[in-house]
Amino acid sequence: MNIVVLAGGTSTERMISIVSGTGICHALRKKGHRAILIDIFGGVPCVDWDDPFPEEYDVEAAASFMHTFDKDIKETAAARKSFWGENVLALCEKADFVFLGLHGMNGEDGRVQASFDLMGIRYSGAGYLSSGMAMDKTITKDMFRNHGVPTPPGVSFTKDTVVKKPEEAGLHFPVVVKTCCGGSSVGVYIVHDQQAYERAVQQAFLYEDELVLEQYIKGDEYTVAVVDGTAYPIVQIKPKQGFYDYHNKYEPGSTEEICPAPLSEEDTKRMQEIALDAWRALSLDAYARFDFMMDAEGNMFCLEANTLPGMTPTSLIPQEAQALGIDYPSLCEELIRVSLKRYEE
Questions:
Q1: Which domain holds residue 57?
Q2: Residue 252: pLDDT over 70
Q3: Same domain, yes or no, for 297 and 202?
Q4: CATH code, domain with 40
Q5: Which of 135, 139, 189, 337 has the fewest Cβ atoms surrounding its Cβ within 10 A?
Q6: Is 250 a residue whose pLDDT tops 70?
Q7: CA of 191: how far to CAs of 182, 214, 247, in Å?
Q8: How many whole angstroms from its chain centre is CA 3?
Q9: Are 7 and 101 in contact (CB under 8 A)?
Q10: For residue range 322-339, what is the model confidence (pLDDT) as tens digits?
C-alpha cells in the first residue's frame, strides 16, 4: 500500500508523536509498504508528484526535517491561518491509507478524522465522534457513568466556575487536578493540601481553559488495549518515583512495565470486561487503550480512553501485542486491517 504516516502537529505531545510516527513508518516499510512520514503541520515543501511514495526512502531524514519546526512551533501556529502543512492533504488524498501517529489536540480529538471523512480519505483509529468524546475527559466520565463503567468521582470547571476547595465537590485530599483534553499526563497534578491545590489549578489553566478535579485513587496502575473488540493482555505500570507523569512515561528506566500484569485470572478478566464496557460506552471501533487504577480492596476504576495511544516500538500496546506473539511491524499492519473494516461496511 501507499501509506502516509502523519505525525508531529502542534500539541504538547508533538515530540512523542514524531517518535511514534518514525517507528510506524519504519515498521510499515519493513513489511513492504511504501510509507512516507509527514508532519501534519510542517508539511512537505518539495514533492516528486510522479513518484510521491518511492521504493527507496530515508525515514530518519524525514524525522529530522520534522524537528526543524520544533523551536518555533507556537509562534508559527499563531501566525498561520491554516493548520494543514504544505502538500499534506494532497499527499493524503493520493495515499491508499493514512496512519495517524498523532497524539493530543488537532490529531486525536476528531478534527482531522472529520476532515478525512469529508474528503474520502481512509485512516487509522476511531472515527471523529468517538475520538472527540474520548479526548474530552468530562464527556468520557459522563459516558462511563451512564454506562456503568466504574470511574473515580469528580467534576469539571472553568475559570468562571472554579471549585475553590475540593470539599465543595464532595471530594477530599489527596485529589487529582488535570486538564480536560490533555495527554501524556501533561498538566496533571496530584495534590495533598489546599495550598498545593490552588497552585495546581493555576498551573493547569496555563494549558487549557477547562479542568477536571478527581478523587485520587491510591493503588496500582494498569492499562489494557482493546483491538477490534478484543481485550489484549494487561500491563501493570510501576513508576520508580511519583506517578506515571510525562517524565516517567518517556524517560528510559524510570518505570517498570509488566506484561502480562501479575493479576489473578479473575481480576484480569474483570478488568478486561470493564475495558470492553468503556469501549462500548464511547462507541469506539478499530483500537484504543484504557487506563486503570486498582485500590487495595481490589476496586477497579477506569480513568480514561486513548484513541491514538503511543506507538513507539516499546509503547504499551506493542508490549501487549508482543505478549500475544505479535511483533511490532505485524501490529502496525493489524491496526490498519481493523481500521479498514469501517470502510467495508
A1: 2-123
A2: no
A3: no
A4: 3.40.50.20
A5: 337
A6: no
A7: 18, 11, 18
A8: 21
A9: yes
A10: 999 999 999 999 999 999
